[in-house]
């Protein structure tokens, strides 16, 4: 019996397991996302139908009434799921090697980073070029202030508020207000 892992790097990535961000499959996915992001980011505010179509091609789920003000950046796009009436202000970056879910009516300020990409703490594994992902879940009616950073594996409960510039390193309970680095309940 062999311990060989015959999964592709993409299959490992999507499972949240250690993987190498190499190979034709992931490169093709990056190129697809890059093409769609560049087109979205230059589409004018008067091209709403075009912007909506590009988002639907790029992202895994786009609810009704979603607004993303460009520029917007992401790794793959297909791991991002946005509920109805989600708003992302200018300059957001979502590193979506695994799932990012944003609940309906959530508002995300300028230059917010939502990160699922992580790296092993063991330096020997990092030297091998391995990384992994941990999903992020943002509940309904959440408000995330400008410049906040949401780290891999974090879950933010419904109706929570994340203060501007906060670094969210752990789960945020429903209805809580957190701020600071690291973010703490206020």
What's the arrangement of secondary structure elements?
Layout: H1 9-14, H2 24-42, H3 48-58, E1 61-62, E2 67-68, E3 72-74, E4 80-82, E5 87-88, E6 92-95, E7 100-102, E8 107-108, E9 113-115, E10 117-118, H4 123-127, E11 132-133, E12 136-138, E13 143-144, E14 149-150, E15 155-156, E16 161-162, E17 167-168, E18 177-179, E19 184-185
Parallel strand pairs: 1-4, 2-5, 3-6, 4-7, 5-8, 6-9, 7-12, 8-13, 9-14, 12-15, 13-16, 14-17, 16-18
Antiparallel strand pairs: 10-11, 18-19
Folded structure, characterized:
- This protein is of the alpha/beta class.
- Helices cover 22% and strands 25% of the residues.
- The protein contains 4 helices and 19 strands.
- Strands 2-5-8-13-16-18-19 form a 7-stranded mixed β-sheet, with no helix packed on it. It has a 5-stranded parallel β-sheet with strand order 1-4-7-12-15, with no helix packed on it.
- A hairpin with a 4-residue loop joins β18 and β19 (184-185).
- α2 runs antiparallel to α3 (48-58).
- The chain is globular, with a radius of gyration of 17 Å.
- It starts with 8 loop residues before the first helix and ends with a strand.
- The model has no long low-confidence stretch (mean pLDDT 96).
Write a short abstract of this structure:
By secondary structure, this protein is α/β, with parallel strands linked by helices. The chain contains four helices and 19 strands.
Primary descriptors:
single chain, 186 residues, alpha/beta, seven-stranded mixed β-sheet, five-stranded parallel β-sheet, 4 helices, 25% strand
């Amino acid at each position: 019996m062999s311990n060989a892992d015959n999964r592709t790097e993409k299959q490992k990535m999507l499972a949240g397991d250690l993987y190498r961000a190499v190979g034709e499959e992931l490169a093709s996915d990056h190129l697809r996302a890059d093409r769609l992001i560049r087109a979205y980011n230059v589409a004018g505010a008067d091209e709403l139908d075009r912007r909506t179509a590009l988002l639907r091609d790029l992202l895994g789920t786009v609810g009704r009434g979603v607004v993303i003000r460009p520029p917007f950046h992401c790794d793959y796009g297909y791991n991002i799921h946005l509920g109805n009436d989600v708003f992302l202000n200018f300059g957001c970056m979502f590193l979506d090697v695994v799932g990012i879910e944003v609940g309906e009516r959530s508002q995300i300020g300028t230059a917010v980073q939502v990160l699922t990409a992580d790296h092993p703490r063991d330096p020997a594994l990092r030297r091998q070029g391995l990384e992994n992902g941990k999903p992020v879940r943002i509940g309904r009616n959440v408000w995330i202030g400008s410049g906040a950073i949401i780290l891999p594996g974090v879950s933010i409960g419904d109706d929570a508020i994340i203060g501007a510039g906060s670094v969210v390193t752990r789960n945020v309970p429903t209805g809580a207000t957190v701020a600071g680095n690291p973010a703490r309940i206020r």
